[in-house]
Amino acid sequence: MKPELSLLWKHSGKLGRRLPFALLASSLVVGCGQPAPETSETPAPSAPAAESSAQAVDPSGNLEAALNTATDEDDAVPERPVVESLFAIPQGAASKATSAVFELTLDAKRAQNEQFRGKTLTMLDGAQQLLFRDDGQGGDAVAGDLLFLASGTFDFVALQAEQERIAQAQSQSQTQLTTAVFEGRELVNTVPVTALSTQFPVGQRVPIRPIGLATLVDPARSLIIRASSVVGDPTRTWDPCTNVGNPNGKWTFNYLMTEMANQPFTGVAPSTFVREWLRQWETAKTVNTFTTPPRANIVTKLVNPWPKVGGALDLTKSPFKLVAIVNRLDLAGNNPAYGSGRAGEGRFIFAATEGTGTACHTVPFLVILEYGVDKNDCVSIKTYAQQWQALSSMALGSATYNAALEALTEQFAKRDLSPRKPNRSSINQVRTNEIWLGSPWELREFRLWNSTISAASFAAPGPVLGLLNSHTVAQTPDRATKNTLFPSYVNGNAPAIVALPPTYTVPLTWSTGAFRGGRAVVTSTFASPSSPPFWSQPPATIPNRQARHVFSLNTCDGCHGDEIGTPFTHVSQTGALSPFLSGALTVPDRADGSPTRTFNEVLGRQTFLDQVANQSCLTLSFLSSSAAVH
């Protein structure tokens, strides 16, 4: 028997990124993106000395040994099969465990599927492992035809309930139910949804298809939560302008950074953890040989006004106000249908504040805490999705709603949830975007480190254990490479870039030099319609125009700027949403004027949440990875 390909598909737990869907034949393929890989790069040295006096110290003197139990979760995401259709054929009466034959067909039009031809695939449905064969053995009639067969059991009772749910939703709707169809991040179609018959005769081919009913998910309650009754809940948040709230509440900057520092494990005091993070703006940073200039006025604008206790930052009076809590289940980076998985990210968005009393206000310095949600099987991911969708039926900001939301955020925000990761924290990365400290708009990225993770992506002379360290920005080259390495990279990787889903990650180095940057900048908040996006070259230089567009859109400065003509923040310091998060956005190609593309990011997230919360685990076989990370 040939090796099961799922054993070759390694997890990429970091996240950051966007939701691509594609309809292939009658099937919806849902993808999600991860940051660039690091394990294939320069091996990590032992912990370097700190650049300041805040070297992380473990009281036992063995912090590094403890942190080294963590594993690097930045593995590259290999190509996965693009599923065209999946059928279950009952061999007996419908029950919760009916004996069935399964037919899985891969899309022959997708070149990436050739590597799976004639092989075997392993998929999980709850505790059941299904071996799909295209090797001409075990009931497979023809080897190498991309039609895989497996035998097992299937829950037809749950499928009946799902069809009844669809039928009920249709009865309550005055219009035909539809599901959205995406290719990459572009909305290309909507497809009518009709419930199947709930009778499944023996021998009948029953389609197992991923369908998400977006209308059953309220984005304001289940996806991007900005209501003042939530982000201003005095039990869980603290308002630095009014001094109202609970300074130790579960959604405060104080609590979240304290849990991330995890002093009982690392020996790093939370106030030191935050102060050393802020110190990284004070001097120039060299990241992957590229220089990130200092913004030293962070001291006068943020550090000095911050209340102190014994000279240390008083985190209970942190000048950061909660703006939004965001569910990024759509970033599920590993596919539980093939044996493992993560439930995307959970995010908190804070805005810095300045002034006192009635003059106090939020400023354009956004801090986004992006946590991985370590759910490792379909059942737990499905349960987690159901909890998020349940919020849509609760009164926004009510005591019941806020308690249910806290129960969700505590599944990724509190300490010790991810023992294999640095600091035992679930945090993937901390990102900032701001223009308050200086011009131009700038996005930075910070990560925790342990010595099993390559140090090459961090600022020189190297990362410090236990602290947030400056890191390269995901999927984004340094702007100095625009006329040199950028065209070469896109031309050399066009098939992977335009694949559905994309399968590339921007490397640290390409060809003759350093490539991935240490920051992303947007020189104009809104790009002029008459000027092309920054990541553009003429057709003579980059012939594949779709590859140019996809690559540009997946960069920080493209997604948060001129590739789709949006402001640099998708959620502003006041909680306002950019056009990209406000419904359908139709944009002519920014470099060429055509084609015109339609995006609808929130619709995609609604569709995905409903699908995962309500459908068979086997529909996750349609889930694929993406290079999108923002």
Strand-residue proportion: 15-25%
Kindly report how far apart the N and C termini lie.
40 Å
Largest sheet: 8 strands, antiparallel
Number of helices: 15
Helical proportion, percent range: 10-25%
Low-confidence parts lasting 5 or more residues at pLDDT below 50?
A: 1-75
Q: Write down the overall geometry.
A: globular
Our Rg estimate from Cα atoms comes to 24 Å
Q: In total, how many beta strands? A: 29
**Please, what is the average pLDDT?**
86
Structural class: alpha+beta
For this structure, the quaternary state is: single chain
Region (Disordered): 34-59
Organism: Corallococcus exercitus
Biased composition (Low complexity): 34-56
Protein name: Lipoprotein
Description:
With 630 residues, the chain is an alpha+beta fold. Among the domains are: 134 residues, no CATH class; 247 residues, no CATH class. It has 15 helices and 29 strands. The strands form 10 sheets. Strands 11, 18, 19, 20, 21, 22, 23 and 26 form an 8-stranded antiparallel β-sheet that branches. This is Lipoprotein.
